[in-house]
Amino acid sequence: MMMLEAKQVINERYQLQQKLGKNAGRQTWLAKDLSTEKPQKVVVKLLAFGGDVQWEDLKLFEREAQTLQQLDHCRIPKYQDYFSIDDRTLWFGLVQEYIPGLSLKQLLVNGTRFSESEVKKIAEEILQILIYLHGLNPPLLHRDIKPSNLILGEDKHIYLVDFGAVQDSAATEGTTFTVVGTYGYAPMEQFGGKAVPASDLYALGATLIHLLTRTAPGELPTADLKLQFRDKVNVSSRFSKWLDKILYPAVEKRFKTAQESLDYLIGNKSEDETESIYQNRRISSHQLVVKPLNSRVNIERHPNIIEITIVPQNKTISDIVNSFDNPVTFGIALMITVFILFPLLSSTTIPMLIGLIIYLYIARVKFLETRISLRHDEFEIATNILGFKKKHQGVTRNIKDVSINYVQQFQSEDKLKPNAIVINTKLKYRLNPYKRFVFGQGLTEEELLWIVSEIRGWLVSRDDQE
After folding, report:
1. Is 401 a catalytic residue?
2. Which candidate in 72, 81, 87, 144 is catalytic?
3. Is 274 a residue whose pLDDT tops 80?
4. What is the mean pLDDT of residues 238-262?
């Protein structure tokens, strides 16, 4: 077997610097790429074929190289080279981008303690990576998410590494799979060769529990196959419920997608609201949703722009009451306003004030015109009510999702109703990167579905052109 040591040059190009890891037949080194004018640091993974290393190990190694060649994500190390060395023992080498930083496992060993806000930020960044992987055609499953495969870079962002266990989720039934995964992090269905996108979500949840409890998930007690962690963490009730759902042993009870999981984590939606929204979101961006009859919405869709106009329409008193996101809140606000101004008003002006406030809200519903324009570079939502105009603008490439917002129906505790459309965006390098643009209040559910379908379809065609 070829003996490797620091300063040694392999494949006439890579000078080994420091051993990063070693297991049976495999070594990982930090190296310098001497082929560049200014030698760049790279990570070289080496696999020695023979002995304990069999064909299945080599297949996984080659699959990792092939996968990295196809990936293009800022939080995944980029593929650089693949080679073999025949020196009595056949060695295979995979070279990829070096990410300066420490793995979450190293941070745990060093005694780092993670707060709830830090763990949630880590979860958000990993979910964004999974949205990318699971959204490929065919989707890719990482199958080995754990602290040692997550790097906290010097730029304070999380990177996902080690794609040696990756699987194409479109593989057909009956195919022989190599069972991979790490005990405690991989869910039961993965060890049965039936990994799905929700399997990566489970591994993410187990990783977060490790960060919060500083105890490996395989060492935590279980009840009915479910990790028992609540007595060992001090986190908000909402975050505990999110962890419960992502860690359900039964795959059908987990979040179905990384996007759904992220929406619940960063949004203000309850679990029931998230489920209701995703019943609607199962509408494909390519599915035909026709314009409802007598709609007051007009849509003009072109390759470079989509324009949506929502014209004013008369409303009954009942429609106006139901168009409030929360009519009780409006009533309370009305009473507080009158109470504050009461000492300044006469008995004859109080009814006039109440009538004016109610009229202004009715005017907002009755006379409001909305125009939404989406172009390749930016989008704009403009409103006009009785000559008073207001505009909200955003960058089209920052759009992460277009969905229907659901709220609790007035005088009903168990029913949710659609009340608006939400464009969710994420901005880079901002303290609070998430921004929501809301419009379409007062439209019917059929109209909301139609608008969402049209926008999603236009965004897909825009991405195809780029």
Report:
1. no
2. 144
3. no
4. 92
